[in-house]
UniProtKB/TrEMBL annotation:
GO terms for cellular component: plasma membrane. It is found in: Cell membrane. It holds the Pfam family MFS_1. This is MFS transporter. One of its GO terms (molecular function) is transmembrane transporter activity. Residues 23-386 form the Major facilitator superfamily (MFS) profile domain. Keywords: Membrane, Transmembrane, Transmembrane helix, Transport. The chain crosses the membrane at residues 26-51, 63-81, 93-111, 117-140, 152-175, 181-202, 214-235, 241-257, 278-301, 313-334, 341-359, 365-384.
Amino acid sequence: MRSSPAAVRGTSTAGADRRHGVMLRLVGAGVMLTVMADTTATTLAVGVLRYTPAGAGMPLGDLVWLTSAAFIPIAALLATAGRWADLFGRRRVLAVGLVVFVLGGIAAVTVEPWSYVLAARAVQGAGAAAMIPASLGLLLGELPESERRGAIALWSSASGLGCLLMQAGGGWLAASVGWRALFIPDVVIGIALLIACAWLPSGRRAGAKGVPDVLGAWLLAAGIAIIVLAISKAMAWGTDVLWLALAALALLGGALAQARHHRLPAIDLALWRRPRFVWGWLATWGFGALSYGLLTVQPLYLLHLGYPMLEVAMWLTPTSVAVVVSSFLAGRLVKRIGPYGLIYAGSLLCGGACVLVLTQSGPTVWGLIASVVVGVGVGALAPGTS
């Protein structure tokens, strides 16, 4: 019995949809893996530079700019990049973000002056700011509603895998080749993701019109950058940082003024009037602050105690494994208990484990157990705050 042409076409379309779905999940997870691996690479690089001749004479506040230079454009451009993705197509914006990210990574590996390295990191941050909302928008816009929760769980848990892989292999890279080699894996994965974009749907939202508030985004980025500079230089510059604080307030005020009059503002004031959004933002901010502290403080502390980079990486790996496993399981549970349950459970685990860490005088078995519990808590928070 022969199949009808309509049945054959239906089967072919279903197969193409499945392939698109698989590719969407892989690319989305790859983006988060790459961004988190890059963040981890930066924190490891700061730790390595702190105890090498290249960075021994630099204040820690200046070294930390290696991380801040990338975070500032991410914080400022995320909303604007999401609107560009809706307007011009999520695949296109994702591809542009990947190109920018890869070029910034190549520059970070090759350029010599420290100011150029920081500029390269800022370029990578701008690329990541386009990659994150575009990849998430593709998952939400192209997958059926029944498949979205699982895809978002994979998307968020991939960040833990990126952290794990970089911590496991980054110590060897830094010890064997040097701190710049930590950025090479991100470049390689970024190129692979860029090639994979050819198999993604365009992801353009119907009816999207207008031009996002670019000026507001730049004002926001400049204001955040000056705030970070004021905090990092507060001890060295004393009361002079008050002038920086005033400049930051003026820039942020300009961004808010733009937001009041622009159709597609960099700061969506309507969202900030919703209590649920504000609480969600606070939860996400707390999650980011906890993750950043976990990634930054632990390596620096262990390196300060004299542990070699390879041993530091081995010490951090169990925590990353806990993050990956916990975030995957939490993604499965979010439909059953809801995001609030995960946020409460993750916060209690992290808080209790941090209290236990404070009672330890150095790297101990209990300290390692507490770090693993923190990893479980962070993994539970990831899908709850996504």
